[in-house]
User: Which sequence fits this backbone?
């Protein structure tokens, strides 16, 4: 069990989101950075969709009320456990009473905190446990605040090296020139934009503006003008869609995306790269790399293979520790 | 397994203390072999914390938590790197023992100062219990008897290139069995284990200074 001592606004409990309610106008929500959420869960032996705390602002302080396996992954934030500096991705066991402090974020935009639990791990509010069973996003639709106490349903301790485990940090940038690069498909209204707009969109970096949140990131860069006139009827949209409102500055729809919108869509960021945006911060520069459906499918297969390999390596390590009587 | 990691550490400490170079135990269908390959391991025996011997805090060793290569902290982990002479607190992360994407934390056994020679070189190979913060310690040496050239097509069971890289670094001795002297047709017919890509294994070995000896034949 862990108690929130101090935390800035906007920290929520998230998982991989809920599917199947789009047509009722209910978006998927879920974590902004699926990669770090998965890493934190997998390091503890949790299922990938177990709930984690998504912490977008620091500093924060949390106290472990009981001996507890936990994992951190995401932004580098000078995390400390009772004053002991922790790596950016870390899984270990905290003793009862130890305090976890998250400092200023230096690289990345979000930290994920997972508690070790069972295969059906869901965070529960100690004082309202029955209500959380259905919740796949923030409980009661609100953010966490000091005094909240959370526990994992299954209190088992994970099999980990004595001094803790870290994992290779996924590279936020594709290997080019330090920009956050995301692969995207041309979307329905792509060809209604001018040739100059299309050329600029696919070649010029855009800056992530301060008008950015879980619903979407508003970008600033070359103005994207359309050859077509008139408004569109509202239509379905999903996370990753890049809309261009009247001002010509694109908006990327993200985890809390609306389900409907009427702005023309120039592109759709592929699912495998959405996590990169989730760790990008206002002021970071972002470039779109054009791909096609085959490229998107290849990226998805690569990502799935990577998670499978990591799961196998973690299982090997756990088996080794189990054999050692850990 | 017959021993847990703590018991293994105690056993290794006892070997150093008693100047035992090699221990081979078989019990309940399991076999444990521990080997201290060089004199340095014995010289450090008195510095093992909790081993009952004299402890010199200036040379306190840090046992490796597993088998893998060393990576210092300060890369992409968000922690500041440590220079020789840096002050560290007890249980501070010094670096990692890396196995693929997994990094087992190597932590300081006590508060103190890093020796002037600093931490081991990145990529240095360690076995379980080796002194990962002992700058003078040689890398663990492994003798490998391997049947190379067996990974082909969908059978990605062998990474010959990675193995050769280790040999190039002088971190293992190698007895390479790749059917160099055998008649490939004979091997294939009689299951002699020549490997499906013996030529490639031989080709890989030469730039790394490894010359494959003849491979034993299965009876024809």
Assistant:
């Amino acid at each position: 069990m862990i108690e929130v001592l101090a935390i800035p606004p906007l920290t929520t409990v998230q998982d991989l989101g809920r599917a199947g309610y789009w047509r009722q106008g209910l978006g998927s929500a879920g974590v902004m950075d699926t990669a770090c959420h998965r890493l934190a869960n997998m390091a503890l032996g949790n299922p990938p969709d177990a709930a984690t705390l998504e912490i977008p602002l620091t500093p924060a302080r949390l106290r472990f009320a009981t001996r507890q396996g936990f994992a951190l992954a995401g932004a580098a934030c000078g995390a400390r456990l009772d004053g002991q500096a922790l790596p950016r991705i870390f899984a270990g066991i905290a003793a009862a009473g130890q305090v976890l402090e998250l400092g200023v974020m230096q690289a990345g935009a979000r930290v994920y905190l997972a508690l070790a639990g069972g295969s059906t791990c869901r965070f529960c509010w100690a004082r309202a446990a029955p209500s959380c069973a259905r919740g796949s996003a923030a409980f009661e639709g609100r953010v966490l605040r000091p005094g909240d106490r959370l526990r994992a349903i299954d209190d088992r301790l994970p099999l980990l090296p004595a001094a803790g485990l870290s994992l290779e940090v996924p590279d936020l940038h594709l290997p080019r020139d330090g920009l956050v690069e995301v692969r995207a498909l041309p979307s329905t209204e792509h060809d209604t934009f001018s040739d100059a707009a299309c050329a600029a969109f696919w070649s010029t970096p855009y800056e992530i503006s301060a008008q950015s949140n879980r619903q979407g990131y508003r970008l600033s860069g070359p103005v994207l003008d359309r050859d077509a006139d008139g408004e569109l009827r509202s239509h379905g949209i999903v996370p990753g869609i890049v809309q261009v409102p009247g001002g010509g500055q694109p908006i990327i729809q993200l985890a809390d995306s609306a389900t409907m919108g009427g702005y023309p869509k120039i592109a759709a960021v592929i699912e495998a790269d959405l996590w990169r945006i989730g760790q990008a911060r206002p002021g970071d520069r972002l470039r779109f790399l054009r791909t096609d459906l085959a490229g998107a499918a290849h990226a998805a297969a690569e990502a799935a293979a990577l998670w499978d390999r990591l799961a196998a390596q973690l299982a090997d390590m756990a088996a080794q520790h189990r054999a050692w009587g850990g | 397994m017959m021993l847990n990691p703590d018991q293994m550490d105690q056993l290794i400490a006892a070997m150093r203390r008693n100047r035992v170079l090699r221990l081979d135990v078989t019990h309940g269908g399991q076999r444990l072999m521990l080997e201290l390959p060089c004199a340095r391991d014995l010289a450090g025996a008195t510095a093992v914390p909790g081993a009952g011997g004299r402890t010199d805090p200036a040379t306190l060793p840090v046992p490796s938590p597993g088998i893998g290569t060393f990576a210092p902290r300060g890369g992409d982990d968000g922690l500041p790197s440590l220079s020789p002479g840096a002050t560290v607190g007890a249980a501070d992360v010094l670096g990692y023992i890396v196995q693929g994407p997994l990094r087992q934390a190597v932590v300081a056994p006590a508060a103190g100062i890093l020796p002037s020679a600093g931490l081991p070189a990145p990529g240095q190979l360690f076995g379980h219990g080796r002194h990962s913060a002992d700058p003078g310690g040689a890398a663990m040496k492994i003798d490998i008897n391997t049947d190379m050239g067996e990974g082909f097509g969908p059978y990605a069971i062998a990474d010959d290139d990675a193995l050769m890289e280790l040999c190039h670094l002088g971190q293992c001795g190698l007895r390479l069995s790749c059917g160099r002297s055998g008649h490939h047709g004979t091997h294939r017919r009689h299951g002699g284990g020549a490997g499906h890509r013996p030529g490639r294994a031989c080709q890989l070995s030469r730039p790394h200074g490894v010359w494959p000896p003849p491979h034993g034949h299965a009876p024809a």
Remarks:
- Chain A touches chain B at residues 76-79, 83-90, 92, 106-107, 161-169, 309-310, 313-314, 317, 323-326 (CB under 8 Å).
- The longest helix of chain A spans residues 293-323.
- The CA atoms of residues 79 and 277 of chain A lie 22 Å apart.
- The radius of gyration of chain A is 21 Å.
